[in-house]
Task: structure prediction
Amino acid sequence: MIDKSGLDPNARADSRAQTCAAGGNLLPSCESAAECDKILQTALAGTRISTADALALALHADEETLFATANQIREKFHPDSIVTYVVDRNINYSNICTSVCSFCAFYRKPGDPEGYLLSLDEIHEKVDETIALGGSGTLMQGGLHPDLPLSWYTQMLRSIKERHPEFYLHCFSPTEIHAFKSVTGLDLEQILSQLKDAGLDSIPGGGGEILVDAIRKRRRSSCSTDEWLEVSATAHRLSIPTTATMMIGLGEETWMRAEHLQRIRDLQDQTGGFISFIPWTFQPDNTALGRKIPNRVPPREYSRWLAVSRIFLDNIENLQVSWLTVGLEEGRLGLRRGANDIGSVMIEENVISVAGADHKATEVMLRETIEQAGFRPGLRNAGYRRLPDRPVPISTGKEID
Ligand code: SF4
Result:
């Protein structure tokens, strides 16, 4: 288990004691700021908090105390005052998708004239351009393509690694990998082993959204909670690290967010394979769900869940604030509310921006944001390995569309 927090695992409360897994009726463990203060003191002293405590903190804790506690716990994990970031590019190899997710503005159904599949040459061109711009890797994702064989993915990964062995491949969300099963007829272990052999370094935690089927099944037509977790667990068993995400604002009930955190923490207890947790907010523009839920989660609410995530997830080292969905200003504030990472410059992004996340940042802007929050910027790759400091390339110091 990854635990650099200094927290004492033996002193932790039984997190399942008050959970909602069986009935969906989780109640907060308290309803006053004073009682929440006691939970925060307990967490700071090294005792694991329960899921009901997490819900109580999100709903009732004094904001200042909540944020300060999350910040202190971040300091235990990361005493070096460094906030990390990555320069990479999202390559979306295809938008053709057999799933229907009401929160998604990116996908096109098979046969849609706007559907695309990048050629190998186009992917290589994007990789070459990323390297020229000072990027260290790619976060690669697509839709759930109905008939691409596994060899298409393995040959593509292999050909990138042959040209650029150091280029970091953070590719294919658990939802995509789950879909590879029905296309290929292979099991998860076979699929993931072949992808790893071909050069896959780690897996991004896309498609996590809210890991509670009561809301999940209303928002997407593929990949249940258990199926998403099974892909992550199998990857961890094969020593493929993954990240975990949480998308809030889908119309979920508040307790479901706490349940989501619990499912992630429980799996991390078993495998230790999550390298980071990234909460972000639903972007409604151009989505079917946006017609029902047109408003974004308010920044303060996002911050409260960011802080609760840091306090609750005592076994995940890194917490990333999502500047892309909440903006650079909230991103800066998040660095004092539990986050130790500000994510990616994102030389290219196609999935969330089309749903209305129109924030833009350069490497210079991310570094300045980190410094304004009182930290030193530290470059990393998508696997959270620190990279040597280097002069910021002029190209990533300008805005890139
Ligand atoms: S979120 Fe992913 S799986 Fe869902 S429709 Fe969009 S591309 Fe397809």
About this structure: DSSP finds 15 helices and nine strands in the chain.
